Amino acid sequence: MSGGTCEVCGNSANQRCAKCHQTNYCSKDHQRQHWKVHRLQCSPYRVCQNEVLGRYLEASRDIQPGEVIMKDTPLVLGPRQVTVAVCLGCFSPVTGSYTCTQCGWPMCGAQCQKSPLHIPECQLSRERGSKIQVSKFGEENQMYECITPLRCLWLRDRDCNQWATLMQMESHLEQRRGTEIHDLNQVNVVDFIQRYLNVHSFTDEEVQNVCGIIDVNGFEIPAQATALIGLYGKACLLEHNCIPNTTRTFDAQLNIVIRAAVMITKGSHIATSYTDPMWGTADRQMHLRTTKYFG
Ligand SMILES: C[S@@+](CC[C@H](N)C(=O)[O-])C[C@H]1O[C@@H](n2cnc3c(N)ncnc32)[C@H](O)[C@@H]1O
């Protein structure tokens, strides 16, 4: 028995979706009818909120070990802030032997130049009037710090749903003001976008805000030639626990797949670890304090 009202007709319901335990129906017929819509939202968790954690996920039923809790597609993929020069299509390190014929950023070749991932910085970099000149390869290159922020900012005028999802993410902007990372981003990202790329359509605050969003919510994806960062609208809601009850993997399309590592009982919080379990306690605490603003 479930109580509540039928999702289809609004009459009193006595059946409930067995997968999420959250959606009610008056009959099997109405449940079948609704499945096309419901399957896109059906999940074994609900989004909750409290003063300490902000938004977090709670199991809406018992979740068995190994069960997939969510598979989430990336909103934004981009290089890490600190990186060597990489191809902006496939993220492999580059030597500068090929550059995008439109904007001048180094790429692997013509195939990678066509990657949809490269569109934001390619179009925005053209506002400069002359091609981008990259001359440092094989060592850390600060020019790349603007790429993932630009890919976020690009959504503002292109995809209002994705932009709204991004803007709901925690940036801790107020706590970042006056810190070293905020000052560095002012020079390497804000000033670079405005002075080198000649892009003036984003305010300092908007750029700093997406830098915060990337630091607080970004998942490092290790499975490429160089690590990259992914932002995921649902997976970003997972809270931190040093002993997480989930595992995470990335599939070939770089969707994030979150599975239960243990039995997660109904009502329990669903957590991942924001730190490397191999680090010592002091390093983990420092990482959480300086990049996630708690702990
Ligand atoms: C990736 S976001 C998680 C989603 C976020 N709560 C929201 O409302 O968008 C990370 C932020 O959530 C909060 N958070 C996550 N786990 C926490 C924990 N174990 N203790 C305190 N705050 C936590 C911190 O504010 C952290 O910077």
Automatic annotation (TrEMBL):
The UniProt keywords, alphabetically, are: Metal-binding, Zinc, Zinc-finger
What terms describe the molecular function in GO for this protein? N-methyltransferase activity; protein methyltransferase activity; S-adenosylmethionine-dependent methyltransferase activity; zinc ion binding
Classification via Pfam families? zf-MYND
Q: Which residues form the MYND-type domain?
A: 6-42
Task: Please indicate if the UniProt record lists Lyase as a keyword.
Answer: no
- Name all SET domain ranges: 35-275
Highest rank taxon of the organism? Eukaryota
Protein name, entry field: MYND-type domain-containing protein
Whose protein is this, by species?
A: Petrolisthes manimaculis
